[in-house]
Amino acid sequence: KVYMNGEDVTASVLFDNYIFITKVTGEISIEATASEMEYIVSHDLTNVSIDESEGTFVYSHVYEANVSYNEEGYIDFNITITVDGVDRTSDFYLDGKVTITAVKGNVVIKASASAKEFDVVNDLENVGNTNPDHTVHYDDSYYAELDVDEGYENLTVKVLMGGVDVTDEVYNDGVIDIDVVLGEIHIIAEASPKVFNISYYATNSTVVNPQTTAEYSSEYLTEVHANNGFENLQVTVLMGGVDVTDFAYEEGVVFIEQVTGDIVITASATPKHFAVTYDLDHVNSSSAVNDVTYGGTYETTLSLPEGYFNLAVKVTMNGEDVTADVYSGG
Fold first, then answer.
1. C-alpha–C-alpha distance, residues 162 and 180, integer Å
2. Bridge partner residues of 58 (DSSP)
3. CA distances from 27 to 5, 22, 23, 122 (A)
């Protein structure tokens, strides 16, 4: 305000910041005030903390702040301080501290650190992982489901993070759920093969060295023979309830390259048939049977026709004289 003789003449004598009075007619009084300029201090932070808030500050304000980050989980720290777009980092930052003795422009503090990267190691045996990522970052989460391969069971799991066993905290019923990654993740999981039963039903036949169980994916081999005196061996092989005889059995040998279920072997043989021949000279036989089966019985009575005596008999079986064992003189 400009007064002359107590009258406000500001409008006629003030031109921007310039006062010009063409004719002084009395006492002049000048009243003038000014406001401090204000500047903005802003932060652009990634994985970094500053203990002083951003905001608007007056000219020459002293701004001091400590900059920090979690060195356990982050690396590659970088900071840039600009004033009205000009890089002044070297002037205002040293060893984790920002010191601006007088704010004289808009300040931007940009600081960042990169999260450490950790390996995910899968040490799996007969187990699959739905999330087989090879790396994760510090402070990330990690979720995975473990699936037992077909034909396997009894899943056992151990989870290490940063070398520490965290199984109890992060694993339950096939699921790994880590809220905050703090180090390398090592998943150790295995499952054992299912064990299948092997059953045998042999009639007039024999299975050689019959084992009673076989593991999933293992080989199975055995031999089947007709018992002595039997022939026409018939074999059926079931696996998992499916008839696999055509590819699992050949000429007395059962071979399964990869067991995938319970095995049932059924074998049978029929008795051999033997011829009965008669060489009778003036001798009668009560039986005219000319065919008998192994294990069966045979009997006949020999008699002489009228006018003959001194019956002599010889009986052979398989070419061996068995008369003394089977003939009683009748």
1. 12
2. 38
3. 5, 14, 12, 93
Say which residues have a Cβ less than 8 Å from residue 222's Cβ, sequence separation at least 6: 207, 208, 209, 210, 211, 253, 254, 265
Structural element, H or E, at residue 91 = helix 89-92
- Other beta carbons within 10 Å of 183: 18
C-alpha 317 chain-centroid distance: 68
Instruction: Using alpha carbons only, give the angle 22, 23, 26 rounded to the nearest 5 degrees.
Output: 135
Per-residue pLDDT 10s for the chain (330 aa) are 888 999 999 999 889 888 888 899 989 999 988 788 999 999 999 999 999 999 999 998 999 999 999 999 999 999 999 999 999 999 999 999 999 999 999 999 999 999 999 999 999 999 999 998 789 999 999 999 999 999 999 999 999 999 999 999 999 999 999 999 999 999 999 999 999 999 999 999 999 989 999 999 999 999 999 999 999 999 999 999 999 999 999 999 999 999 999 999 999 999 999 999 999 999 999 999 999 999 999 999 999 999 999 999 999 999 999 999 999 875
What does the buried/exposed string (b/e) look like for 103-132 if buried means 16 or more CB atoms within 10 Å of the residue's CB?
bebebbbbbbbbbbebebebebebbebeee
What whole-number distance in Å separates Cα of residue 96 and Cα of residue 65? 9
Length of the chain: 330
Helices (H) and strands (E) in the chain, counts: 5, 38
Count of CB atoms situated within 10 Å of the CB of 102: 9
- Per DSSP, the three-state class of 13 is helix
Q: Which residues pair with 145 in a beta bridge?
A: 175
Closest among 188, 196, 173, 216 to 127, alpha carbons compared = 188
Find out whether 239 and 259 touch, Cβ atoms under 8 Å: yes
Residue 101 region, left (φ>0) first, then alpha (ψ -120 to 50), else beta?
Answer: alpha
